[in-house]
Amino acid sequence: MREIRGAIFDVDGLLFNTEQLYCDICIELAPQYGIENYNQDYYKKYVGTSNKALYEIYQNDFPFLSIEDVSNFIRAVQKIAESYLEVGNVEIKAGTKEILEFFYSQNIPCVIASNNQTKFIESMLDHHNLDIYFQKIYSFDDVENPKPHPEMVNKAVNFLGIDKKSLVMFEDSSHGAIAAITANVPVIIVPDMLPVSEEIRGNVLKECESLLDAKEFLSTTHLFR
């Protein structure tokens, strides 16, 4: 049995449905730029891709667009998404409150390690009254190397001051899981839009369908202080 004494959480796609938000905005705006058949399957192909990389991808996939068109499309999507993120108005994922309350009731400290920006993370937490559950936020703003590099995870570990074997990290993507695995932190993965690769699956503590399932797994198979 593993004693869990601290937890690290990703944000996008795990606690909040931000990937679906971006996907829906892309699908809505694409026809305005003459882009047809932009659907969820297309969006999934590039989940986790940076805006810089998307410029080249879109120019290759939609050669009828000018560089200016591609730039305007990406900026328009980001602007609309940020209008939601700035006020925290993003759908919460199933099981988020339940698993956070579970850790809170066990006096187990939780921190965030996310590639999003601190201001947007804080807005979403505040909007859903989840800020009380976290002792610290580590974001894109705090590191030179975002996930899948382990820098952010190691910062969270150092803050908690707990042996890595007694921690658990929650992620929804392979990028995040790789960061945890590289940092030698046990990771539970709750896939969002993309399935878990076999390589990743073999190195995670558990793959769960939702955070509710993760809570059930921990409450029935793990010891706490």
From TrEMBL:
InterPro entries to which the protein is assigned, alphabetical: HAD-like_sf (IPR036412), HAD-SF_hydro_IA (IPR006439), HAD_2 (IPR041492), HAD_sf (IPR023214), PGP-like_dom2 (IPR023198)
Alphabetic keyword roster: Hydrolase
CDD domains recorded: HAD_BPGM-like (cd07505)
Keyword Coiled coil: no
Pfam annotation, one family: HAD_2
Gene Ontology terms for molecular function: hydrolase activity
Stretches of the chain forming a coiled coil according to its record: none
Protein name per UniProt: HAD family hydrolase
Species lineage: Bacteria, Pseudomonadati, Pseudomonadota, Gammaproteobacteria, Cardiobacteriales
